[in-house]
Task: structure prediction
Amino acid sequence: MEGIRYLVNEDQKPVAVQIDLEKYSDLWEDFYDVLVAESRKEEESIPLENLIEDLKASGKLDKNV
Result:
């Protein structure tokens, strides 16, 4: 596939991929988003209402919102 290179180990098994970011930047952004989401799936979540309250209290969100 043009713009994508697979790096292989001594057994010729793929171990890494190089992606031409000029050609596939949109694909890379999607891939990165999935990696970030996957890495955070075990994190504790908080209700949206609590987040909004915290942002307002810290001055990061207008209190009238």
In short: The chain has a mean pLDDT of 94. The longest strand covers residues 14-19.
